[in-house]
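Deliverable D5.2: sample structural annotation.
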Amino acid sequence: MIKRLFLFVLVCVMHTAMYAQTDTQSKAQMVFSNDFHDASGQLGNLTAHFITEKTWTDMNGEIGAIVRIKVTGMSVSEMSKLKVIGSANASVHDTQFLENEQEWIVPLSKGTNMWLEMSHPTYGKSTRLSLPKLKEKGMYDVTLVNNRTTTIVVHSLPDGADVYLDGNHHGKTPCEISEQRFGKHDLKLMYGSKTKEVKIDVEEGHTFFDDFDFRERRNINIISSEDNTTIYIDNQLIGQAPIHNYEV
């Protein structure tokens, strides 16, 4: 009777643990895509500079494999905060973040039954990537997608500029664009015959963009009955009179 009770409790605990892990995975904001593939022989110009014989060597001194993790939906500064986690037999070590290519280089052991995860101080832990059999000096690519979204706010002077984000029209300023992923976007504003285009990097605490001034500009001369009079415009020091051809 006691043994049966013990086995029942053990099964319940295991079921609860498995359910908790599955539930956590389903709620993960960072998700590995299903594009894992063998990219051996496709190092890329920049990546090749960072791959040496030492990079291929795992913690046991044996030649292993490399997984390149491309990250999307995240600013470059946030990508650099990611941490790679792997199963014990994966022997994850000496990981490198390549800022220009926006990818992580992850050396690990060759073999089977290994997995990888990534964690972030804000976005939490990713889904788990179960790895197929990795061959010696194999190069493998996969993408990590951050599904967390935010609202981008765009203002201009004056109001009424047409707003285009990544080629899609979202109305006129002042404008709020919801459910947008973090990372790089193309932002274009049009006001009459004037157009301003910028690349923005959306990240936590940086979702408000208002550096769009379409007001007409004129040059003025500022003179004073006394030379060297200090001139302020909008509480900003401009200089000392006389001032010629000042743009306002």
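Annotation notes: The chain is about 15% helix and 45% strand. Helices lie at 2-26, 45-50, 53-56, 76-79.
The annotation will be released with the project's public dataset once the embargo ends.
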